[in-house]
Specification:
The protein has 395 residues and is an alpha/beta fold. The chain has three domains: 71 residues, Orthogonal Bundle (Arc Repressor Mutant, subunit A); 130 residues, Nucleotidyltransferase, domain 5; 166 residues, ATPase, nucleotide binding domain (Nucleotidyltransferase, domain 5), CATH 3.30.420. The strands form three sheets. The chain has a five-stranded mixed β-sheet with strand order 6-5-4-7-8, with helices on both faces. A five-stranded mixed β-sheet has the order 11-10-9-12-13, sandwiched between helices. Helix 2 crosses helix 3, helix 8 packs across helix 9 and helix 10 packs across helix 11. The longest helix is centred in the last third of the chain and has 25 residues. It is globular and about 70 Å long. Pfam families: MarR_2, ROK. Belongs to the ROK (NagC/XylR) family. It comes from Streptomyces prasinosporus.
Length: 395
């Protein structure tokens, strides 16, 4: 059965909007080429979307021949405002953007360990409200949050986790209360980092890969055939609990001490650096990442080489388990430590995997590092908002 005229128009509108999301401003002629629609049909949809306030003239394309320049049409950036939060154990980072992802304001706030749940939540919410005001956003359409811990796949809520601050879970609820018109969603931080690396970072050419997060904690995110995999309970990638050799015991259901976290978490990496005599670069951020960066820039010092070699041995243990189970073909070393190690650490891990596993795998350093979580939260918020405003079914 042929689609009705109204259905056909809706399909064409969604196709054009999706192309403008992916490609940026386009001329009517370019839209015609990419959609395969006729010139009159493209003219009608441009007029219709402009009247609806969804697209606008964003400039002119340089003419390839004599005559006036063609108009470029783009999504109306100010149609909605978004916020993205990276919620860590030690504080919050925030970005407010327009509908096409242009960052309008950024801020961060440290939150001390001894700050109570109520005061911590109030400080974080006040930061969101203040930064949104600075960005000129009268209201926020969508708020995307990245946080450590498990996300319940049935409810989309952050599950209560031992060892994580109670204010993390409370923050999501309070933001929804204070911003009743906004869509507030939360996702595991490592999953968001993987989505960002896939869209804008080291895995742009990969439909299947694993991101190994090496930062304050350890985690993994699994992208298979272009889709993020969360598992039955939302726990795919909880690699910190993986039992590994080289630790003094086994992890428990409530504590990952004795697991992979005890080999490659920030505290373990900082301790290893001290044992090897590696001093972190001053002002280089977290101690563990600063030590890795100092070792990479030392160019051949025996102590620094030993530190990187032992660190690569440890990381390879976790990566080898992932490779044996999933055969992803590519592993990205993310987080502050993965980014600090760069190609020096990635190549060492690759060499060890080549000797340990018959399965071919590339090991790549993150190109986004610690900023990947905030970038992933912003991309996810933008996708949700555009899909809702444009009537495009969610991915």
């Amino acid at each position: 059965m042929a689609a009705s005229p109204s259905t056909a128009r809706a399909i064409n509108d969604r196709l054009a909007l999706r192309l403008l999301q992916q490609e940026g401003p386009l001329t009517a002629g370019r839209l015609k080429e990419l959609t395969g629609l006729s010139r009159p049909t493209v003219a009608d949809l441009v007029e219709r979307l402009t009247a609806a306030g969804l697209i606008e003239v964003a400039g002119e394309a340089r003419a390839q021949r004599r005559g006036p320049n063609a108009r470029l049409y783009g999504i109306v950036a100010g149609r909605a405002h978004l916020a993205a939060l990276d919620v860590r154990t030690e504080g919050v980072a925030l970005a407010v953007s327009d509908l096409v992802g242009g960052v309008l304001a950024e801020a961060s706030l440290p939150i001390a360990d001894d700050t109570g749940t109520g005061p911590a939540v109030e400080q974080a919410v006040a930061l969101v409200e203040r930064t949104a005001k600075e960005a000129g956003a009268d209201r926020l359409h969508t708020v995307g949050i990245g946080a450590p811990g498990l996300i319940d796949p049935a409810t989309g809520e952050l599950r209560d986790s031992t060892g994580l601050p109670q204010w993390h879970r409370r923050l999501v609820a309070v933001l929804q209360e204070r911003l009743p018109e906004a869509r507030v969603s939360v996702e595991n931080e490592t999953n968001l980092a993987a989505l960002a690396e896939q869209r804008d970072g080291a895995a742009r050419d990969r439909d299947t890969f694993v991101l190994l997060w090496l930062g304050h904690g350890t985690g993994a995110a699994v992208i298979l055939d272009g889709t993020l995999r969360r598992g039955a309970s939302g726990g795919t990638g909880e690699i910190g609990f993986l039992p590994v050799p080289g630790t003094r015991g086994l992890p428990s259901a409530t504590d990952c001490a004795g697991g992979f976290h005890s080999l490659a978490g920030a505290a373990a990496v900082a301790q290893l650096a001290a044992e090897c005599g590696v001093v972190p670069e001053p002002g280089a951020g977290p101690e563990a990442a600063g030590a890795v960066r100092a070792a990479v820039s030392a160019h051949g010092s025996a102590a620094h080489t030993r530190f990187l070699d032992v660190l690569a041995d440890r990381v390879a243990v976790g990566v080898a388990s992932v490779v044996a189970l999933l055969d992803p073909g590519c592993v990205v070393l993310g987080g502050e430590i993965g980014q600090a190690g760069g190609e020096a650490l990635a190549s060492r891990v690759h060499d060890r995997l080549t000797a340990m596993s018959p399965l071919p795998v590339e090991v790549r350093p993150s190109t986004l590092g610690g900023g990947a979580v905030l970038r992933g939260a912003l991309l996810t918020a933008r996708d949700h908002a555009q899909d809702e405003l444009f009537g495009v079914p969610e991915h």
